[in-house]
Amino acid sequence: MPKTKYVFVTGGVTSSLGKGIISASLANLLQARGLKTTIQKFDPYINVDPGTLNPYEHGECFVTDDGAETDLDLGHYERFLNVRTSQANNVTTGRIYQSVIEKERRGEFLGKTVQVIPHITNEIKERMQLLGSTGEYDMVITEIGGTVGDIESLPYIEAVRQLRWELGRENCIVIHLTLVPYLSAAAELKTKPTQHSVKTLMESGINADVLVCRTEHELSKDIRNKIALFCNVKPEAVIQSIDADTIYDVPLMMLDEGLDRVVLDLLTLPDNLEPDLTNWKEFLSRLKNPKQRIRIGLVGKYVELQDSYKSILEAFIHAGAANEVKVEIVSIHSEHLTPENCTEKLEGLHGLLVAPGFGSRGIEGKISAIKYVRENNIPFFGICLGMQMAVIEFARNVIGIKDANSTEMVEDTSNPVISLMDEQKEVENKGGTMRLGTWDCTLYPGSRAHEIYQKDAISERHRHRYELNNLYLEQLTSNGLKATGINPETGLAEIVEIESHPWFLGVQYHPEYKSTVLAPHPLFSAFVQACSQYAKTKN
User: Fold this and answer.
1) Kind of pairing between the strands at 90-92 and 69-70
2) What crossing angle do the helices spanning 121-128 and 154-167 adopt, rounded to 10°?
3) CA distance 263 to 119
4) Nearest Cα to 314, choosing from 298, 333, 335?
5) What is the DSSP letter of 397?
6) Chain-centre distance for alpha carbon 379
7) CA–CA separation, 392 vs 370, rounded Å?
8) Contact at 8 Å (CB) between 370 and 353?
9) What is the pTM of this model?
10) Per-position DSSP letters for 459-480, written without gaps between them
11) What is the layout of strands, in order, in the sheet containing 435-443?
12) Is 420 buried (19+), middle (13-18) or exposed (0-12) by CB count in 10 A?
């Protein structure tokens, strides 16, 4: 009998039902019971990773310590579990096929016809068991992206079917997430979509062990019994997932529904310890009972889609709870900002964050916003491109280099205060070639960054190709914009500050990726605190 147990989470009826949140919530409950638990995501799209996908297509691209560009659900996994994920936690169809084709070229299938079954499914099964085979985990939860019935998902569903047969039902179970819609005209909940979804799953040879039903209204006992009867599951395995005020309520809701107990029972694991959720409940209490409300502007070019800045929004929730402050995010499209309307657009804000991004669209709006908050002593936080725009704004409007720019925006600019990193100049492929993953940074004693981190050296996650041009560093420093964090390997600036400003800080890396419920990122906590202090001066 294998030591590691496997839970697969599939979805039906429609996408965006919250498979990632349910997976993370279950893992949270099992972890709170003392079980070593991890989560992985299998995405059915053919891209090797989401690194080249437009945020409108896929939402945020989440980066791990080891430099993997992954699905945003891995952010949920880290935030809920307070553990780090890696390349092994996210696999795409593109990566699966790439691996199989490379094996074929090496001659590993010499003489054989390479087919979806068994070669693709064997590769999927191997990847599904990779984390479990390390011996580090009692439980591996695997989220299957997409919706049951999609052509793209079929090889994954077949791989799960085979694994259930190979490992045994007591070692491998399936949780199926479905929708139970409410028809207002009929004034009743409808179970037929769930039945059809389960039927589609059964046609692939899989009987769901647990059904998690997304709903806007309470499921009565009669409806649960009806779903159980027609879907071949026990009544206690029909779990209600009703709309919540915050995603961080979901673990407690799943606890009340007994999801963790049902899973333990199906996997023949002991149910002798109550989950310890003391710290989680304390976080929720602080989140729901703020002592102050503040408004922070988020300037970006993808603000129409909230998932584009998912980690930033969640980091503000964590930092807000830590400070007992309700952070209201005001989304501001950078293309709609001009020097003329900045006062109107930014009035009433207690802080401003300029978001990461790529390309020239909306950069002048970001520069206008930064100029406004710099001159009006409003707390400012710039991340990645946001930091670069702060450097350009300072160079233009303080030093007087009117044509200061980035070579990303104007390749032949005469004053490239931001330029392409040397190691990037020969790169031709776009996928997976940026500066990615964790890099070290040395902090200057006496700087705001050093005061916040309380460390001499840190490591943070990166995702970029361009950096502050060191040829301009002395000029920037002498005029008041100081580099207070330096990469010891490259000598490139990672953090810039204006000491004379109440709170003005830009970072080349992405601190939002490392913020979790139980460990809010210190930069976000300090920024929210600064915005809170600023708000008090305005009341």
Assistant:
1) unpaired
2) 60
3) 31
4) 298
5) I
6) 25
7) 10
8) no
9) 0.91
10) EEEEEESEEE-GGGHHHHHHTT
11) 325-333, 292-300, 351-354, 380-383, 504-507, 493-498, 481-486, 435-443, 457-464
12) middle
How far is residue 97 from each of residues 102, 115, 280, 489, measured CA to CA in Å? 8, 11, 40, 36
Question: Do 326 and 296 form a contact (C-beta atoms < 8 A)?
Answer: no
Structural tokens at position 18: 């919250």
Q: Are 153 and 144 in contact (CB under 8 A)?
A: yes
Question: What single letter denotes the amino acid at residue 27?
Answer: A
Annotation says 450 is catalytic: no
* Alpha carbon of residue 108 to chain centroid: 36
User: Residue type for 143, please?
Assistant: E
* Length, in residues, of the chain: 539
E strand map for 190-265: 210-215, 238-242
213, 384, 441, 531: which is the annotated catalytic residue? 384
- Tell me the two tokens of residue 176: 């199926």
Structure tokens at 309: 């800045």
**Token duo for residue 261:** 């107990």
CB 39 within 8 A of CB 265: no
Q: How far is Cα 185 from Cα 253, in angstroms, rounded to an integer?
A: 29
Identify the active-site residue in 76, 512, 521, 531: 512
Pairing of strands 182-183, 188-189: antiparallel
DSSP 3-state assignment of 28? helix
Residue 489 falls in the annotated catalytic set: no
Query: Are 482 and 443 in contact, with CB atoms under 8 Å apart?
Result: no
Which structure tokens are listed for 298? Answer: 């988020």
The verdict on whether 510 is a catalytic residue reads: yes
| Residue-by-residue pLDDT tens, the chain, 539 positions | 458 999 999 998 888 788 999 999 999 999 999 999 999 999 888 887 776 666 666 678 888 888 888 888 888 999 999 989 888 888 999 999 999 999 999 999 888 999 999 999 999 999 999 999 998 999 999 999 889 988 999 999 999 999 999 999 899 999 999 999 988 888 889 999 999 999 999 999 999 999 999 999 999 999 999 999 999 999 999 999 999 899 999 999 999 999 999 999 999 998 888 889 999 999 999 999 999 999 999 998 887 777 788 999 999 999 999 999 999 999 999 888 888 888 888 989 999 999 888 776 777 899 999 999 999 999 999 999 899 999 999 999 999 989 888 887 788 888 888 887 555 445 444 444 556 788 899 999 999 999 999 999 999 998 877 888 888 999 999 999 999 999 998 888 999 999 999 999 999 999 999 999 999 999 999 999 999 999 988 76
| Choice among 119, 450, 462, 510 that is catalytic | 510
